[in-house]
TrEMBL record, chains A, B:
Alphabetically ordered keywords of this record: Amino-acid biosynthesis, Branched-chain amino acid biosynthesis, Cytoplasm, Leucine biosynthesis, Magnesium, Manganese, Metal-binding, NAD, Oxidoreductase
Principal subcellular localization: cytoplasm
Subunit structure of this chain's protein: Homodimer.
Site (Important for catalysis): 142, 189
Name of the molecule in the record: 3-isopropylmalate dehydrogenase
Pfam families, sorted: Iso_dh
Cofactors that this protein relies on: Mn(2+); Mg(2+)
GO molecular function annotations of the record: 3-isopropylmalate dehydrogenase activity; magnesium ion binding; NAD binding
Gene: leuB
Amino acid sequence: MKFNIALLAGDGIGPEVINEAVKVSDAIAKKFNHEITWTPALTGACAIDAVGVPYPDETHEICMKADAVLFGAIGHPKYDNDPSAPVRPEQGLLLMRKKLGLFANVRPTFTFPSLIDNSPLKRERIEGTDLVFLRELTGGIYFGEKGRRDDGETAFDNCVYTRAEVQRLAKKGFELAMTRSKKLCCVDKANVLETSRLWRETVQAMEKDYPEVTVSYEFVDAVAMRLVQWPNSYDVLITENLFGDILTDEASVISGSMGLMPSASVGEHTSLYEPIHGSYPQATGLNIANPLATILSAAMMFEDAFGLKAEAEAIRAVVNKSLEQGVVTEDLAPKGSKTYKTSEVGDWLVANL
Amino acid sequence: MKFNIALLAGDGIGPEVINEAVKVSDAIAKKFNHEITWTPALTGACAIDAVGVPYPDETHEICMKADAVLFGAIGHPKYDNDPSAPVRPEQGLLLMRKKLGLFANVRPTFTFPSLIDNSPLKRERIEGTDLVFLRELTGGIYFGEKGRRDDGETAFDNCVYTRAEVQRLAKKGFELAMTRSKKLCCVDKANVLETSRLWRETVQAMEKDYPEVTVSYEFVDAVAMRLVQWPNSYDVLITENLFGDILTDEASVISGSMGLMPSASVGEHTSLYEPIHGSYPQATGLNIANPLATILSAAMMFEDAFGLKAEAEAIRAVVNKSLEQGVVTEDLAPKGSKTYKTSEVGDWLVANL
Ligand SMILES: CC(C)[C@H](C(=O)O)[C@@H](O)C(=O)O
Ligand SMILES: CC(C)[C@H](C(=O)O)[C@@H](O)C(=O)O
């Protein structure tokens, strides 16, 4: 098969981890007789520096024409402490999500047996954890009207959801639950928010179409607790944009595999695959960032965007092997043991495919 | 001294845990020669059942006249799964916060040496954890305009903050930091939300008035991660209402002392003291709920509302003693060891004061 993949490396460590994902993807393609054309495009702070906007039209065109988008990370500290910066890298990310119609962000959290003792949580709390968040990604407070009043003394952000937006996300949640343990948790704050009450009533009304799925409804604050206490009690969770942002980050560290979690964003046009970690500015250019989350995102891309399960499994298998054999970047290496550079991990994976 | 305390037991296990806090407070009062008058008042689901509203005017009058309010918990499952219920217990809680002007919710998270191994987190991750959240409690998305449009198909919740609201909360944060390690973390989502940018710029402008305080600015998703990874890297954290709701609940379980964390809400009128746990409906009437969070909230009340440090210390000391001697409810007891009923824990504390 032939694929055209848009390559959005972004900022910080983005280019470094993307590099390794490209290496591994190319090796897989060769092995399975596929042909990949990579089309690089600018996004984030580097796009602002180059052309003044964080998601240029040209980048969007490239993404729309591609079979998939592989994304690194964006963000730069020079924007973070300047609340009044007129253009911000994150605007590019949000615009990209909106224009590509990426309304569902799929974020799994699972454990790697060989890494379980890296977790801040105790082994018995996390063993067997294998959950997936479906985070709504193009609505809510991220995209509602926002601004200032009263000469800048009052700020507001509006959170808005329509029933149709909830339905299309929840539908993906029910469908995913059907392929797994048939347990779905709807996370909201229905005791306070009207948008949450719309979420809850919409999901309740859909229950009858999926009689085999057991649905629970939990408040976001309770989930923030239980994720730490008993992560393995969850399976598929659906939630709105901002709650999803907070909870998926929280979930990513409990697995013991921080820096390893991949994600997919799917919707109306081309799907996008990216690590859930950020641009990690302090590590930029040091060749120390962990490339595995990006490489595992490429595996998700092979499986979900191209329907190539064997290719995906081959990537996952070699990643597992590298973990078992301790071919890991410094974030995963036990004290005193040998560590590998970002590019060395990629090389090893290619050599061992 | 003489005190008049409004007693709002609320729903679920509220009355049971409040009972024990009253016992212990009365014993302390006797020992130190104070006189407490308790004035019970209705709030929550039980108030709806009795008089049709969750925070009756009469209750508000009682709170306004009191020297402090001791609060149990509110909430009842019959309202949670009915998104369209016209009156809800939580409305009472929010109305109470608003009418009493309780704009700052003080939520400490600390570890008890004897309970550290109860934590889902590893000992080395949490040892020394001693942090305090100051959560804004009367603004933000909780209190902004909310409702439906388009025949109920669209829901919205508006998040609004004024600079003055941020300033008064941040001022308490800076002041608290000055009495502790002089480290303040402002938690926001300034890369996406306009209200967060107002928070960040307001706190930045206040830095010059507290030159000794080191301020850091972190995104809420990053804090949700780092709270699990390195809780002991934080000291004082300030944040808006909804982020505070989620993060303080998350923080409460990492300490290894879930169910033990007290809180205070302070502002323009009478201050209020309450456990951070909820109404725990499944345990209602079983005399098994842990009363310590409420008893420690009473200790906060003695210290902060009445300026009685020795009395507060005496309560904390006897609580510590009960933990060390294993006089604990079933949630804290190691498997197979003796457990005590809610009322037995209270009796033991009174006998050992
Ligand atoms: C960078 C930021 C705007 C983004 C978000 O909040 O969605 C990030 O945290 C994420 O989760 O992808
Ligand atoms: C019951 C609910 C409305 C409340 C809140 O969200 O503030 C509770 O979770 C809390 O933290 O006190």
